[in-house]
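Section 5: illustrative case.
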């Protein structure tokens, strides 16, 4: 429909709402051309949480061939901060990813995830002068793990980047979707304030960083397959002291803890032979941080593009190649909602140093089912190195499990 055309019928508007609710993790809208067209040409709308059910495969969407006109991550680049905290519109997808473990004064534990995704529906800038014109869509996921009450809750939103409903800027740093946002009021993008709320849950947190940005992969170029451009530009803020408040079912709690920020942007980021990934981010109480992602092949086994990094207490880094870390699964959990079986409990061994870390989920059920289905949750860590016992906390993300398994009917 062209700008200024007739309004959608009630039936068409209903179809649009149903389709837009299916847009979810990372680049899923890349496969939804019809939905994208409607979102570009019609009015803005953002969606609070709804009982969504997964219908799309994350890995198939990220393996899709991108149209011409977008930049691609093919060679290492020079990163510049704070500019690179902001958007990179010449690439098709990018995301700002925060996860963390929080504690109230009583010792009560919470895990949180707040993620913003930007997806370009077409390269370039719309030529129309209308404030409604945009070729950008923003998505966001918000989740909270309440360990004491054994309750995990998650929500999703999506909006076109028009009329101020969603967007991102570098200076001052700000990314938002409705009233969910991440903002830095001072120059340099730190500290960052995160705010999100839905139903009877809300967070308002301040995050700083005690270590410089860590460039993942080859000086920030993280390859996900042998094909040129199947890569992302990827950096992390691995240790972010966090303080603020949580509102949970009418109770207001002062909390503090540690968070992790991941930033990636790309145009095509996953090799076609890959089935998904397991991502681990761990804060050890001795001040070190470890991240490792295992890319799983459809034929079985881990791909040689897997990798990660070990960050010392001062911010020094040691890259971890695919063969440096052995991952052993210690159990399995099956979702009663989806019927999907996920690994549950892991042992990670750094074969070069002998560091061994065992990870246990804070709750077995930390499955998000928000248009795409994946497991992302808080874990506690126990380790051993040279006879010394270690403790810590972290987050694990599991993507691509049960992509071809239909959801269980209820």
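Designed sequence:
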């Amino acid at each position: 429909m062209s700008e200024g055309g007739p309004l959608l019928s009630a039936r068409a508007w209903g179809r649009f709402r149903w389709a837009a609710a299916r847009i979810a993790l990372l680049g899923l809208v890349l496969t939804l051309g019809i939905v994208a067209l409607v979102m570009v040409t019609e009015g803005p709308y953002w969606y609070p949480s709804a009982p969504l059910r997964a219908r799309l495969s994350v890995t198939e969407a990220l393996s899709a061939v991108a149209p011409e006109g977008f930049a691609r991550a093919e060679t290492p680049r020079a990163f510049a901060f704070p500019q690179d905290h902001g958007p990179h519109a010449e690439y098709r997808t990018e995301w700002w990813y925060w996860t963390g473990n929080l504690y109230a004064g009583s010792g009560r534990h919470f895990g949180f995830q707040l993620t913003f995704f930007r997806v370009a529906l077409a390269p370039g800038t719309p030529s129309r002068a209308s404030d409604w014109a945009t070729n950008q869509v923003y998505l966001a996921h918000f989740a909270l793990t309440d360990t004491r009450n054994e309750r995990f809750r998650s929500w999703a939103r999506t909006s076109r980047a028009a009329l101020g409903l969603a967007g991102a800027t570098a200076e001052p740093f700000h990314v938002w979707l409705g009233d969910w946002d991440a903002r830095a009021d001072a120059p340099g993008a730190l500290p960052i304030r995160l705010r999100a709320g839905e139903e009877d849950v809300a967070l308002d947190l301040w995050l700083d960083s005690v270590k410089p940005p860590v460039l993942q992969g080859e000086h920030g170029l993280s390859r996900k397959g042998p094909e040129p451009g199947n890569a992302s530009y990827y950096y992390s803020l691995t240790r972010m002291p966090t303080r603020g408040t949580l509102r949970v079912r009418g109770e207001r709690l002062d909390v503090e803890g540690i968070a992790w920020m991941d930033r990636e942007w790309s145009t095509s980021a996953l090799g076609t032979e890959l089935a998904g990934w397991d991502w681990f981010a761990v804060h050890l109480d001795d001040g070190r941080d470890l991240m490792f992602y295992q890319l799983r092949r459809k034929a079985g086994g881990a791909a040689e593009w897997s990798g990660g990094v070990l960050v010392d207490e001062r911010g020094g880094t040691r890259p971890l190649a695919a063969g440096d870390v052995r991952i052993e699964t210690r159990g399995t959990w099956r979702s009663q909602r989806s019927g999907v079986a996920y690994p549950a409990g892991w042992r990670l061994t750094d074969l070069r140093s002998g560091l061994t870390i065992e990870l246990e989920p804070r709750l077995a059920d930390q499955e998000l089912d928000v248009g795409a289905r994946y497991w992302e949750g808080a874990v506690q860590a126990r380790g051993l190195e040279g006879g010394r016992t270690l403790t810590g906390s972290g987050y694990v993300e599991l993507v691509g499990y049960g992509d071809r398994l239909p959801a269980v009917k209820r």
